[in-house]
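Researcher: Here's a chain I'd like modeled. Treat it as a single chain, no partners, no ligands.
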Amino acid sequence: MRRLREQLLQMLSGAPDGVPDWVTALAEGDDEGYFGPESAVWVVHGGIPVLIAGMRALLMQTLHPGAMAGVHDWSRYREDPLGRLSGTVRWVLTTSFGDRAQAEQACAFVANLHTRVQGNYERGGETREYSAADPALLSWVHVAFADSFLRCHQTWGKPIPGGADAYVSEWAAAGGLMGVHNPPKSEAELRDQLSAFGPELQAGERVRDAVRFIRKPPLHSSDGGRLTRVGYSIVFAGAIATIPPEYRRMLGVRRAWWPAITITGWLLALLGRLLGRPSTSESYATRRVAALRARSGE
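Model: Modeled as a single isolated chain. Structure tokens:
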């Protein structure tokens, strides 16, 4: 089990102990960050359902042709899927648990990468331009992310302080750091903004190709072998089960015939015990907050 834990942590963080340099850096800083220990963001992003939410967000994001074109043209997800995964994990957790300077630096780093991601894609016989820095695309990525993390936590996680509205409102700060205009501030606004993208979304060969890759990425023996592949298939089925039917049809996927929500919950409980709670990121961030509060006399 120790070996399996190390493999999982290597996949997620880039280090077998789950404590790369960027995680230990979370113990340092001058403030509690944009969120803090009592926040909805800490509860959601520190919960084990994030393992499902990340995959769900990737699946949802493929449905916007501009976002999909950027991934197709510029991403190295095929050559280095685990590297891309750990990079995304680093951004999410640094923004969530770091101090304000760390969060701003993490978002600025990603935003700088976005400035180079641009090109053209075809839609309805018309050639359109895209840029990863375009506010509309940034908004789509933000709402798909927020919706995925919220839905998965509502399905398998513990109660959120302040409820869904608190999570959406708090995470809007991250949207602002990424250049999103008017990020949603409530669950109702999140649903409205997600629905408003409906006419822009489309299926297609690029989407089907991406879904095939996400369903069965090249996990080698060094990545955990057969046991990891079985667990991964459950994670995929769980992600699909939380996606509304209209999006599943566009993705070309169906719910598993077996009780994916229940079995995914069992898997998450097992992974929670295996990986330990709280996560290393939250633990190091908690050290920073405790030190800051001790110095201030709280």
